[in-house]
Backbone:
């Protein structure tokens, strides 16, 4: 597709604005709604778990976090949130470990947190399948396990994460609308979808959402799906290779905010980084809502961020811990909060920023 100025895309902008307004109001969470007081073992007995948490009555409210990796910008914000606020939620001690994306390391760290007498263990899974067995073992001991940002494919006490499939669809819908011009032929817009970390169920769900949405739009076509794993350098090289082979790619999608900067750097290196609204601009779409993504949108470098609710990942998990320590338990085993994202573009970022709806910038 020959990329033109965006003045002809006002209709698409209005349509997307309406779609985003509807989306922001459509919360799909269920989680702690209806949580009530119960006897100490009621939810546990229903799930077949032992009624007694062996670590609970030592006089210290101790919570352990086993995180996949702390490198991502969004993760650092979330961990800082936990560290700043945990005492406000009646937690005396917070232990944070990271596995550097190594499943075996994370399994060992989860058991280490059990041995350190943690009353509750929070996990962000390296591998949603691979972490299930050790989580089963911990739950069987009577110690509740909560998952944040990524699921674990077994029954846990509580999970708080994004509705990743819907965020993927929403981001894809946004770049399909942004790239559309009246009279376009089939496959006119070329999309490069960078695939990272498919051991993560969250990433898989996002990619599935993107694929399902793209199938509804005839003017777009996928021209590459390079594997970038969780690697900044591989992202940069993948974009260099793709645009060297085909400099007319119109859209680059990445599943996480960490990978926007290498996309921008690669396009700049190739002389293809054009500001939003200028002829030749390449649409860059991502998911997270980091400062890098949002400041890039403000600067006209990238275009779309599916903002995850990392603010809620902090407060809701800490609230669930506080409730547990206070004897208020989730109504049902394996409660989930699936949080909708907020699609952020050049058209609405100033408004969202003014309403303090973007955790990445203030």
Residues:
């Amino acid at each position: 597709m020959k990329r033109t100025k965006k003045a002809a895309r006002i209709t698409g902008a209005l349509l997307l604005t309406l779609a985003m307004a509807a989306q922001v109001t459509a919360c799909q969470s269920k989680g702690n709604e209806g949580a009530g007081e119960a006897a100490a073992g009621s939810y546990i007995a229903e799930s077949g778990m032992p009624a007694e948490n062996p670590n609970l009555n030592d006089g210290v409210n101790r919570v352990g976090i086993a995180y996949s990796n702390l490198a991502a910008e969004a993760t650092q914000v979330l961990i800082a949130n936990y560290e700043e606020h945990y005492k406000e939620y009646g937690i005396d001690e917070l232990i944070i470990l990271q596995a550097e994306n190594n499943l075996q390391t994370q399994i060992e760290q989860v058991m280490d947190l059990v041995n350190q007498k943690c009353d509750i263990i929070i996990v962000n899974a390296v591998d949603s399948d691979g972490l299930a067995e050790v989580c089963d073992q911990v739950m069987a001991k009577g110690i509740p396990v909560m998952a944040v940002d990524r699921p674990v494919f077994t029954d846990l006490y509580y999970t708080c994460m994004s509705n990743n499939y819907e965020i993927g669809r929403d981001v894809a819908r946004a770049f399909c609308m942004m790239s559309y011009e009246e009279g376009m032929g089939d496959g006119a817009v070329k999309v490069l979808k960078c695939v990272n970390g498919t051991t993560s169920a969250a990433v898989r769900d996002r990619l599935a959402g993107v694929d399902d949405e793209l199938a509804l739009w005839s003017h777009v076509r996928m021209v590459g799906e390079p594997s970038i794993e969780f690697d900044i350098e591989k992202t940069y090289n993948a974009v260099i290779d793709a645009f060297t082979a085909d400099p007319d790619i119109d859209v680059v999608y990445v599943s996480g905010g960490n990978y926007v900067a290498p996309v921008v750097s690669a396009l700049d290196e190739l002389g293809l980084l054009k500001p939003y609204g200028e002829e030749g601009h390449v649409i860059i779409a991502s998911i997270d809502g980091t400062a890098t993504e949002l400041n890039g949108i403000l600067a006209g470098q990238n275009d779309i961020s599916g903002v995850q609710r990392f603010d809620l990942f902090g407060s809701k998990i800490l609230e669930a811990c506080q409730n547990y320590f206070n004897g208020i338990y989730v109504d049902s085993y394996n409660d989930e909060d699936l949080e909708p994202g907020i699609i952020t573009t050049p058209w609405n970022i100033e408004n969202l920023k003014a309403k303090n709806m973007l955790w990445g910038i203030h």
